[in-house]
Amino acid sequence: MANPIMPALIGQQYWDAQQLLQNAGVFSPKSLGFFGTFPIYASWQKSSAPPGTVLAQSIQAGVPTAPNSQVILTMSEFPMGVSFPTLPAPPVTGGVNILTDSGLQITTDDGKPILTDSVNPTPPATQTWTADSTTPTIDTTGTTIDQ
Fold first, then answer.
1. Angstrom distance (rounded) from CA 90 to CA 101
2. Would you say 16 and 50 are in contact if contact means Cβ atoms under 8 Å apart?
3. DSSP code, position 64
4. For a tag on the chain, would you pick the N or C end, based on fewer CB atoms within 10 A?
5. Measuring CA to CA, which residue among 24, 4, 14 is closest to residue 73?
6. Does the predicted model carry a pTM greater than 0.85?
7. 59-81: per-residue pLDDT in tens?
């Protein structure tokens, strides 16, 4: 029996690429068993492509490939974190206004919005606000920030 042909995966989203591999017979989860080694690996890199898009594949499309051969997919990475505008220190009402004007919503642990006229100039004990010399960051331990 001939080996299945590697499909073209570039431009596909990860789960769609995995399904194409399975449909082609290159990836056969049933034959892996409970303790088999998953043969599809992802290598992540920054790209202007939508996050989770296959940018390259280790086995060229059209090549006969043994089932469950190792395939490395180079993927566009997902954004990490949220960019915050520069905040005054300590972040009092003005800082909250800057965040909300940027489209961010600041809430307490129980999901209630923090209103700009009720902000205490001293952050709660579970929340610290820090900034280094290059990028302002907020350590929001115990606080949810939704966009």
1. 18
2. no
3. B
4. N
5. 14
6. no
7. 999 999 999 999 999 999 987 66
- The pairing of strands 71-76 and 40-45 is parallel
* CA pair distance 77, 105, nearest whole angstrom: 25
* Distance from C-alpha of 125 to C-alpha of 145, rounded to nearest angstrom: 17
pLDDT at 118: 45
First to last CA, the chain: 53
Question: DSSP readout, 85-107?
Answer: ----SS--HHHHHHHHHTT-EEE
Which residues touch 65 (CB under 8 Å, ≥6 apart)?
3, 4, 5, 6, 26, 59, 71
Using an 8 Å Cβ cutoff, are 30 and 40 in contact?
no
Tens digits of residue pLDDT in 81-137: 656 556 555 555 556 666 667 666 666 666 666 554 444 444 444 444 444 434 444
- Encoded amino acid at 106, one letter: I
Quickly count: other Cβ atoms within 10 Å of residue 99's Cβ.
Answer: 20
Percent of the chain scoring above 90 in pLDDT:
44
Q: How many CA atoms lie within 13 A of 140 on its CB side?
A: 16
Tell the burial category of 17 from Cβ atoms under 10 Å away from its Cβ (0-12, 13-18, 19+): buried
